[in-house]
Design a protein that fits this description.
The protein is an all-beta fold. 0% of the residues lie in helices and 47% in strands. Strand 7 and strand 8 form a beta hairpin. The protein is elongated.
Length: 137
């Protein structure tokens, strides 16, 4: 569910979010989903900011750590109106058999200072294992 931030002409609407990389294993070395015999993560993200944005993505099942996962969110109301506002994108591994999902990590970013690939694509990274790409209009 997305909470709509005010939509003005200078707002940036998020069209697509790509998970480009994340750690292969949990910090203790075990696989994300060892019980499935596949070991791959069932990933989803939550993106928040102080202006009221709180969006949780759908779960993408059995995603290898080295394969890009893309969410088309063009039909969602995800607007970033302040390019200097701090946002947080957190990544989780959905656990069906446990009540608690595994926290993979999060990135705090300011869209204006994100790496510019071009005007509409921003790359955000934690400087380590987690990297996202955001396509905005």
């Amino acid at each position: 569910m997305a909470l709509v931030m005010s939509c003005k002409d200078d707002d940036f609407k998020v069209q697509e979010i790509r998970l480009q990389s994340f750690p292969e294993n949990k910090p203790n070395g075990s696989e994300w989903d060892a019980i499935s015999n596949i070991g791959t993560a069932d990933v989803y993200f939550i993106i928040t900011n102080n202006s009221g944005l709180n969006y949780s993505s759908s779960v993408e099942y059995e995603r290898p750590y080295n394969v890009t996962t893309t969410w088309d969110v063009s039909d969602e109301d995800i607007f970033l109106e302040d390019l200097f506002e701090e946002c947080v994108i957190s990544l989780y591994d959905r656990d069906i058999f446990n009540s608690d999902d595994d926290y993979i990590g999060s990135i705090t970013f300011i869209l204006n200072s994100s790496t510019d690939n071009n005007k509409s694509t921003k790359t955000i990274t934690d400087g380590g294992d987690i990297s996202f790409g955001l396509k905005v209009d």
